[in-house]
Fold this protein.
Amino acid sequence: MSDSNVEPSVSTTVQNQGFQPPTPPPAPDAPAPRPLQLRIPAIALFVLGVLIAVGGALKFIPGGIGTGLALAFWGALLFGLSFVRLPKPAPDAPPPMSVMERLTGIFYEPTRVFQNLKAHPSWLAPFLVISVLSIAYAAAFTQRLTPERIVSYTADKMAETPFIPPEAVERAREEGLDQAKNPVQRVGTAIKTFVGVFAFGAFLAALYLLGVLVFGGRINFWQSFAALMYASLPTVVIQKVISLILLYIKSPDDIHPIMGQETLVQDNLGILFTPAEHPVLFVTASALGLLSFYGLWLKATGLRYAGLRVTKGAAWGTAITFWLLGLLFIVIITALFPSFIS
C-alpha cells in the first residue's frame, strides 16, 4: 500500500472524531474588596488632629494636644484598617438589612441580625449610638454631681495612694477642674470618647478574631468588629437609659463619684459586699449580673453567626475567655488601688 493511500484515511478519521481543545484552567477568584471609603475620613481626621495638636501646643486651643493626638491616632488607625479586606459574601447571601432593622432587631431577633452581618458587616450605626449615649450620660453625671465634687473626690483618693506625690495630686485637681468646666475641654473629652470607643472596639475585635482562630473557627476582622458593636449595643442602651433615670431620681449624695460614672444599674451580686471593706470581692461579684450574662450571650451569638465556620463551642470559648481576662484585669487594678471605690 502506498503512502498516498494512508494519509487521507488518517485525516478523515481525525475529522470524523472532531478536534477537542484542552479545557482552559479556571480563572482565579477575585480578591475580596477593601473598605477604601474609610481613607478619606481617615486622612481628614489625621490632618484635623495635627492642626488641633499644634493649636494646643501654641496655647491657642485648651487641651488641644491630647485631643489632637487622639484624632490623629484615630485617623491613622482608620487608614490602616482600610487595608483589611472585607469578607466575600456567599452567592446565596441575604440582602443587607436597613439601619433601623438592625438597631431594633438586635433586641428581639439578634440571630437574624448577626447572620446578616456575616455578609454585610456594618458597624457605624451602633458605634454612633454607643458613643453618643456614653457622652450624654457623662455630661449629665458631671452636671448632676458637679465637677467640684467629682474632681475633689478623685484627687483625695489619689492623695491616699502612697507613691503619688502631693504636687501631682494638686496639679491633677487643678487640671481636672479646668477640664470639667471649660467648654472647649468638654468638647475634647467628647471627641476622645468617640476615639476610645472605636479603638477599644477594634482592639477587642482583633482579640476575638484570634480567639476564634485558636478554637478552630474562621471569622473576618470586619465581621468580628460589627458583631462586637451590635452585641454591645443592647447592654449599653439599657445601662445608660436606666442610669440617666436613676441619676435624677436618687440624691446626688447617694451616688458614688467614681463608680457611678459608668452605670448606676445594680443588677449584680455586688450588692452583697461593701466596697470599702471587700473591694476585690465587690468588683468580682459586680461582674456576675443579668446584663453581664446578657452581654456575654450576645457576644457568643454574634461570633457564632457572623463568622464563617464558627462552632457553638468556639464562640462561647472565645467570649468566656476574654470575659474572664477582662475581669482578672479589673480585679488586679482594684487590688492595687482599692481606695478609689471605697
